[in-house]
Amino acid sequence: MNKLIALFLAFFQIGLFSIGGGYAVMPAIQEQVVHQHGWLTEKTFTDIITISQMTPGPIAVNTSTFVGIQIAGIPGALVATFGCVISGVVLAVLLFRFFQRHQGSLYVSETLKGLKSASLGLIASAAATILLLTFCGTSDLNFGTAIPLNWMAVALFSAALFLLHRKKISPIPAMLLTGVAGLFLY
């Protein structure tokens, strides 16, 4: 199948079936581009997520754009981004109409509670994958063997966490500071 068609279909599916948006969509993107199609390695995927975090806009759109560029250049970026966005737009319009009609329903309210829990699980899964790749170099841990730990990554993570939660600085300066530190320390 043509790579552009495959990109569109993969990201259309991601946009259509990813509940929760943001980081909740990362496991679905990873499944498609790393495991199912083999377009990217786990490391390249993690690097793309990092770049996507630093650029303005929704992370799912940024990630689809960067994955598309990596796989098929500018046409790939356009096709992947369009596939990701158009499915979400169609789904959002349909869901909006549904919720307008059934906004007082107990079933709808309880379903939304379940979806919130599932979204949290998806976000935690994406965070665990990024954490393991950053700290250990792999997301596929075998608990019977020793796991190498990148202490520099742990230190930079801790510094960013401290700056964000204790010093209450904006994420952009925190990322810039730890990025500059990484440039000199690695």
From TrEMBL:
Q: Does the keyword Transmembrane helix apply?
A: yes
Could you name the Gene Ontology cellular component terms for this entry?
plasma membrane
Ranges annotated as spanning the membrane: 71-96, 117-135, 141-164
Say where the protein is mainly found.
membrane
Q: Which organism is it from?
A: Hydrogeniiclostridium mannosilyticum
Pfam families from the UniProt entry: Chromate_transp (PF02417)
**Name the UniProt record assigns to this protein:** Chromate transporter
Report the GO molecular function annotations: chromate transmembrane transporter activity
Q: Does the keyword DNA damage apply?
A: no
